[in-house]
Amino acid sequence: MVALCAQMRSHFEGPEHAEGGIQLQHSHRVWRQLNDLQPAALRCNAMASPSASVDSKAELTSLLEQWERDQQGSTSDLVSILTKISELIERETEEYHKADPDPFDDRHPGRADPNCMLGHLLKILFKNDDFTNALLNTYVMTSREVSLNTAACRLLLNIMPGLETAVVFQEKEGVVEKLFKWAQEAEQPLRIYATGLLAGAMENQDIAANYREENSLLVPLMLRRLQELQDKDAKSRLEFKRPSPRKTPGEPLLPLDEEAVDGNFEDAASLQHRGKEEVEEEETPALQKEESALDRPGMGMQPDLSFSLASPHKTSGRANPSIKPAVEPVYQAAPLLGPGAGGPKREGVAHSWKKPDREGGQKAKQKLNFSLPEPERSFSELSNSSWSEMSPWVIGNNYHLYPLTPAIEQRLILLYLTPLGEYQELLAVFMQMGARELLMHYIDLKLTNDAQLTFEALKYLASLLLHKKFAAEFVAHGGVQKLLEIPRPSMAATGVSLCLYYLAYNQDAMERVCMLPHPVLADVVSYTLWLLECSHASGGCHATMFFSISFAFRAILELFDRQDGLRRLVNLISTLEILNAEDQGALLSDDEIFSSRQTAKHTCMALRRYFEAHLAIKVEQVKQSLQRTEGGAPVHTQPYYKACSYTREQVVEMMEFLIEYGPARLYWGPAEVFHKLSCIQLMLQLISFACDWRTYYGRSDTVRYALDILAILTVVPKTQTLMSETVDVLDEGGSTVCTVGMSIILGVAEGEVFVNDAEIQKSALQVVINCVCAPDKRVSSIGKFMAGTPRRRLPQPTKASETC
Q: Does the keyword Nucleus feature in the UniProt annotation (predicted)?
């Protein structure tokens, strides 16, 4: 058995040394409105008394010492010790979640929040190699005592936040097989504990592929069990004279175009008898796993954050998932050193199955404070309810695995189904057994009254939304409206962000969303803007991704502008402490600095998509004006529900057209808003600062996105004028100095910082070209700054009244 105390090198390094990944810090926006509902003791949880911390540590130490003495004792004694440790971990897990951590943050709790007691307890536990080895080797694998197996599995589930599950399940031979057997045959609660542990194993694609037959048998069993638990809950509600949560699904709200959705879709029974080639033809083309960084020329080990729709990825003989969007994980974790880490296993290297718990800074645990920018959209119960009544809706209220409740059982089943939802080979089973109807119940908090259960259901729903067939039916049967009913703020609302992002990535599904009634679509944009500003860090990240993709749909773009979306998107960058010229966020931890840089990168990418979409609209308007005055072929506008995407060459052509044929005093609404928000200076400052982010793998992407934004905006003469104004930047010594904005662009164009990076130089040169190669009537004073010599005439013919 591997030594459990082996420390990973990345545990001591900053997050920027890890390959790939994205970490976003918790939002600094404070949620206040619900704060008065909390008991004072809960609000002060982050400032727990030192004595309580000492007591928990001492209790765990005492239990481990007792185990050392009694490890050869009776089964009942061992079960008692393991149970007490589980109860202690569960108690601290509940305390940890009262601080409202990001539910998508899968880092070690000790790294996510260095002050939390849960992190300290996990560290103490994993320092005891004998105990952790015995837990898996003896109590799970060797022992035939069901009570001991059950207690060990319960404890393993509780310490999962500190485990590198891929290493555990791959290196310990036979453990996955035993868990499958227990999940099918064992008595409760061992059966459901084994199911929860299988969820961690199935997160690894190699493991899931190797156990495709076992999964094909277990998945139907779990879906039937969920149905039974829902029916039982429905009967219980009827007994108490409450309306049943089981609702008969009505007719689709939108017509289903079977040919467009998935004309070859068949039920599970027929799918099992089809050949591999036929299954490959049915593979959903909506989303693909990002290709390996080693397979992308020129990309090295940097993950690509592309949002272009991928081509179908054929299924091999192994289970192959319908691939997720090419997006980095929301939180940066240290790189794995074992199988499944993106590289071959190195012989002679001991792999720790302890998740790295590097304490990434002095960030204190955040309290639960809430604000609702749109109180009219909040649930009316919030103002008159106590925190004890509202906490199940906001953060959940049960983190104890015993006594086993129906809610816990359903959560662990959903946890197992989530990583398997991506697999095309299981889609027919999910569809035939009514997964959509089941999920429509779970995502209704008024029925579950459990934010944890609804959140797990939303994660499972997101994995199924990767499939065209499922996504189309979900939208057609009112699924989007059900998502919008989930109250804010809550853990479940953060789960909605992932569903919206995956819907946006599925172009067919997004077209159907854009065809929903206008009030519904307006609510989609409103909800996502709230997530952008007030959700957890992952919710803001997913919301940014949603808009980055959906700006291609004019229906979304128009509603985004009507709801002041540009200002709210820009605020993500303008409020970053790392852009403060005075200290550049000197008090931030390494994790927080990295997260801020990722925020800047993703926001710039979304802004570039935003201005590309508006550029196309402006070009259409100018062409229509010219057609009316000078004749020519009519200009056809793309339907509002269809996506419009453009290549780099098309964007350059549109900029050249607008510069050449646009009016001398071109007025462009989005550009004017950008000017009023002082964002030209902000982009220039960001470019200057980002050039010094030499340890950040996304540095070049951030600079290129910002340059592309400026290039589009320089079609407006006012932007060119603003480029000649001064900007506060840092010199080589770290002192604040003023420099002309255009000199920052020239420095990048000349290759002073990014050596041999042609793409960045092209983007910088495009800004220069747009400023100096406009017709005389549009040239601003920036031309004088660019060169003291007269501008050369371009070789192409020009209008009689204009020269270049």
A: yes
